């Protein structure tokens, strides 16, 4: 519940207390023997209803005591029970059935004492007993209804979580199936092409003949295709990141890329989807910088915020704002990951030169 909802709830409770007090006072005003003390008791018995959400038992105790004092002093009609009825209902609503019943019994005893033995008072007391019974029953019914709604919401959330897990499991099974199909169909064929090209090159050189450029190109392309296919199969078979963004930065430095890492905020464990997305974003950002930025400096910044994780990968390479790159598989994959988590991604050349990747990932309750 946010601040505005709390404020609206408190305002509604205050309006309820004022409305109950005004109704009882208006009724009391028609009695010629109503005194200022009676009005004060009515006001003091009604005012605590404004706090029935935070202290229901205390409100019931104060309202019952002052309401009983009022009926003993003024001998009013049944509407004088309204403040106590409200307090009994709210106490029963939060589970204090015994306390609620005791408060109603105390008020009824005080009401009967105002005219013990008279038929009119007995009839009114019987009417009030029915009202108090209804207040307790409706309070319990409301409590059960709220519990039912919470259980229904919990079941809906559990069902949604189960559906998400099933979808992730099916996606993982589909990735494995694709990996097996690629391995069975392409790996063998490309290996045969590479092998035959290599044999042809070897025989040509052995005979002292000039190796045709097309044959060399086939040999080189088949080797590159094998390496790319192995990388793709590794991604399909294991989507889990094999390390941390810091490890990616260390690997990039070892490969000769000038890269620095800055981490701000309170570093903590991330939800698995956010951790995977953060790893892949840094990985793709460093890969793009290594391939396209040239001899550039790269900066990786990770900021742990209250409710979101911010990742920035900037380089001062050769990217030109006037010629934005066509999004490839890497940028498209990053955007899909970020969008799936409800975050935002900005990937474009910088005005001062170079390329910038900035992602904001909401951490949610799990963080």
Q: Topology, pairings included?
A:
Elements: H1 3-29, H2 36-46, H3 56-74, H4 82-93, H5 97-113, H6 119-206, H7 213-237, H8 245-254, E1 258-265, H9 272-292, E2 297-304, E3 308-315, H10 329-340, E4 344-349, E5 355-362
Parallel strand pairs: 1-2
Antiparallel strand pairs: 2-3, 3-5, 4-5
Helix pairs in contact: 1-2, 2-3, 3-4, 3-5, 4-5, 4-6, 5-6, 6-7, 8-9, 9-10
Protein model, in words:
The structure is a single chain. This protein has 367 residues and is α+β, with helices and mostly antiparallel strands. The protein contains 10 helices and 5 strands; from the N terminus they run H-H-H-H-H-H-H-H-E-H-E-E-H-E-E. The longest helix has 88 residues, at 119-206. It is elongated and about 130 Å long.
Strand order of the largest sheet: 1-2-3-5-4
Q: Could you give a short account of the major beta sheet?
A: 5 strands, mixed
Classify the helix fraction into a percent range.
Answer: 55-70%
Nearest-integer average pLDDT = 80
Number of helical runs?
Answer: 10
Query: What gap, in angstroms, lies between the N and C termini?
Result: 19 Å
Please give the radius of gyration in angstroms.
Answer: 38 Å
Instruction: State the low-pLDDT regions, or none.
Output: none
Binned strand content: 5-15%
Envelope shape:
elongated
Order of helices and strands: HHHHHHHHEHEEHEE
SS class: alpha+beta
β-strand number: 5
Short description:
The chain is α+β, with helices and mostly antiparallel strands.
Features:
10 helices; 5 strands; elongated; 367 residues; 66% helix
């Amino acid at each position: 519940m946010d601040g505005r909802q709390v404020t609206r709830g408190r305002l509604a409770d205050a309006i309820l207390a004022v409305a109950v007090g005004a109704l009882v006072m208006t009724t009391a005003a028609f009695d010629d023997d109503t005194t200022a003390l009676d009005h004060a008791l009515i006001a003091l018995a009604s005012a605590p209803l404004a706090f029935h959400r935070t202290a229901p038992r205390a409100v019931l105790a104060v309202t019952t005591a002052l309401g009983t004092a009022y009926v003993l002093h003024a001998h009013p009609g049944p509407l004088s029970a309204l403040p106590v009825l409200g307090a009994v209902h709210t106490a029963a609503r939060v589970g204090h059935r015994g306390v609620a019943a005791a408060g109603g019994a105390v008020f009824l005893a005080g009401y009967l004492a105002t005219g013990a033995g008279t038929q009119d008072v007995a009839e009114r007391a019987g009417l009030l007993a029915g009202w108090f019974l209804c207040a307790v029953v409706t309070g319990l019914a409301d409590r059960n209804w709220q519990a039912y709604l919470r259980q229904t919401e919990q079941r809906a959330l559990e069902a949604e979580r189960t559906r998400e897990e099933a979808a992730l499991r099916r996606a993982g099974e589909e990735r494995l199936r694709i990996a097996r199909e690629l391995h069975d169909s392409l790996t063998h064929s490309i290996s045969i092409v590479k092998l035959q090209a290599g044999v042809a090159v070897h025989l040509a050189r052995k005979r002292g003949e000039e190796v045709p450029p097309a044959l060399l190109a086939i040999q080189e392309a088949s080797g590159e295709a094998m390496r790319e296919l192995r990388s793709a199969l590794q991604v399909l078979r294991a989507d889990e990141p094999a390390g941390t963004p810091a490890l990616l930065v260390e690997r990039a430095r070892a490969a000769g890329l000038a890269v620095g890492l800055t981490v701000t905020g309170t570093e903590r464990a991330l939800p698995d989807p956010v951790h995977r997305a953060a790893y892949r974003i840094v990985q793709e950002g460093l890969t793009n910088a290594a391939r396209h930025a040239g001899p550039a400096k790269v900066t990786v910044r990770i900021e742990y915020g209250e409710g979101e994780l911010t990742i920035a990968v900037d380089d001062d390479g050769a990217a030109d704002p006037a010629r934005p790159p066509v999004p490839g598989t890497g940028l498209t994959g990053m955007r899909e990951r970020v969008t799936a988590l409800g975050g935002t991604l900005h990937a474009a050349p910088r005005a001062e030169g170079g390329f910038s990747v900035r992602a904001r990932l909401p951490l949610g309750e799990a963080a």
